[in-house]
UniProtKB/TrEMBL annotation:
Keyword DNA damage: no
Organism: Paractinoplanes atraurantiacus
Annotated keywords: Signal
Name the UniProt record assigns to this protein: Pimeloyl-ACP methyl ester carboxylesterase
Secretion signal, residue range per the UniProt entry: 1-22
Domain AB hydrolase-1: start-end pairs: 35-260
Length: 268
């Protein structure tokens, strides 16, 4: 074999190794479904960090899907594309907060999703919006006049008239993390990822929970989505409900319970 052929053969071998290495863990015959976590608004994947670690220790492949927070249909399409291209085999989709609305719309575009887990999350029906559901029952701090809760920042990439919304930093700890350490609440407030205001007013599409089994974790101290509204959404979805004593950020307050519920959804 001459030098050119040796180089070509080596390149082919390297490409083959890279392809195998890049394949998701389920491609190697794991019996467990892949868990794909979808964070909510004013957050990022770190909000699921303790849950991710617990599930990984229990042998699950766990992926955190990027959630652009630009618009409900666009965010759902992004998550569905991630599931379809970054995983193989069965998938459990778990969404926190606004992430619940995203998985509600994404699962219908991702045929390997077998179950849904809603963690202090929205589970809208067709035509409903996040704004509508937030005010459906009394008790949400986000239902107050917008100028008292949010700071608006114009993003040139958004459509005309739309803005990015941030929860006011001095109110974030009280609303989202009242029972977490003060320093943690302040750090989360500083690190929050904004959501486009239009996403909160965009009607939801056909809900996947009408076709897929669902599990719900309801935080009794939630000041974002009142527990009564979470129970109402779970009830119409005929979902399995677990109640936890937690604020809106239950994945940080009660990670063991959240991981256990996701395992139930995974059927393990």
């Amino acid at each position: 074999m001459n030098r050119t052929r040796r180089i070509a053969a080596a390149a082919t071998a390297i490409a083959a190794i890279a392809t195998v290495s890049a394949a998701p863990a389920l491609a190697h015959g794991s019996a467990k479904p892949t868990v794909v976590l979808v964070h909510g608004a004013w957050a990022d994947a770190s909000s699921f960090a303790p849950v991710t670690a617990l599930l990984q220790r229990r042998g699950y492949t766990v992926l955190n899907a990027p959630n652009p927070l630009r618009g409900l249909a666009a965010d759902a399409a992004s998550v569905a594309a991630f599931v379809n291209q970054a995983t193989t085999g069965p998938v459990v989709l778990a969404g926190h907060s606004y992430g619940g609305a995203v998985i509600t719309n994404a699962a219908g575009q991702a045929p390997r999703v077998t179950a849904l887990a809603y963690i202090d999350a929205y589970a809208p029906d067709a035509g409903e919006t996040i704004v509508q559901l937030t005010g459906a029952k009394p008790g949400s701090a986000l239902a107050a006049p917008a100028e008292t809760v949010f700071d608006a920042v114009q993003d040139p990439s958004l459509p005309a008239g739309d803005v990015d919304l941030y929860v006011k930093r001095d109110q974030f700890p009280r609303i989202f993390a009242a029972h977490l350490p003060t320093a943690t609440g302040r750090a989360l407030a500083a690190a929050q990822t904004p959501i486009a205001a239009g996403a909160l007013q965009e009607p939801s599409g056909a809900p996947a929970w009408k076709k897929l089994p669902s599990w719900f974790v309801v935080g009794t101290r939630d000041q974002v989505i009142p527990a009564a509204e979470q129970r109402a959404m779970a009830g119409r979805a005929h979902g399995h409900v677990t109640t936890v004593t937690a604020d809106h950020l239950s994945p940080l307050e009660q990670p063991a319970t959240i991981a256990a519920v996701i395992e139930q959804a995974a059927g393990r």
